[in-house]
Amino acid sequence: MTDIIDKKMAKENVFIINHPLILDKLTRIRNKKTEKKDFQENLTEIVSLMAYEVFKDIPLDDITIETPIGKTKGKNLTKTIIICPILRAGLGMVSGLEHLLPNAIVSHIGLYRDESTLQPQEYFFKYPNVENHEENLVYILDPMLATGGSTLAAINKLKAVGVKNITFIGIVGVQAAINKIHKEHKDVKIYLAALDEKLNENGFIIPGLGDAGDRIFGTK
């Protein structure tokens, strides 16, 4: 079986997860005939499958517990994990992580893209009042990494409040957006299910999967 991560890209802090189950579900959500319910379900499943790769190196602490039979040594998560979906499409990815990480804190950042300039405009930001910003693990969620503007704005906002450890989880992206982010923030890891060809004149990914927010919430 081939590796599910392109090793060359991984050296650049970019991880394209080519797992067969993800590729199958990605094809389903790309299909314009896929209805809202199936789109949501497959998107959630893709995020959950990606999580196994995203969190494979997460720090663990040693602990001692008692089973019904006796004592044993185990591991547990002690880092504060903060999930930060970019509104609104990022909300559709939250459940794919929450059921695996029920103690994760969910932050929110509201950004919309000005259709004339394609630049992100912030309208909402809610970050938890937690300690140890430098040690907390923050995961930005957005299905599409298109122009990269919204993701870059989210990273800048989070770093402005002291966050150091940031990872982006998306579904489909393009190389130009990756380059834009890593020009300023090479330390941010980027996880995607697919790297697509380019953007069209309206800033949408080709072939992409359409407007993720509209397809998640059924607004178009």
Description of the molecule:
With 220 residues, the chain is α/β, with parallel strands linked by helices. It contains seven helices and 15 strands. Strands 1, 4, 5, 6, 7, 8, 10 and 12 form an eight-stranded mixed beta sheet that branches. A hairpin with a 4-residue loop joins strand 2 (61-66) and strand 3. The chain is globular.
At a glance:
The protein has 220 residues and is of the alpha/beta class. Helix content is 32%, strand content 29%. The protein is built from seven helices and 15 strands.
Keywords:
single chain, 220 residues, alpha/beta, 3-stranded parallel β-sheet, 15 strands, 32% helix
Number of helices: 7
Quote the distance from N terminus to C terminus: 39 Å
Largest sheet: 8 strands, mixed
Radius of gyration: 18 Å
Structural class: alpha/beta
Residues in β-strands, percent: 25-35%
Average predicted local confidence, pLDDT: 91
The amount of helix comes to 25-40%
Structure summary, number of beta strands: 15
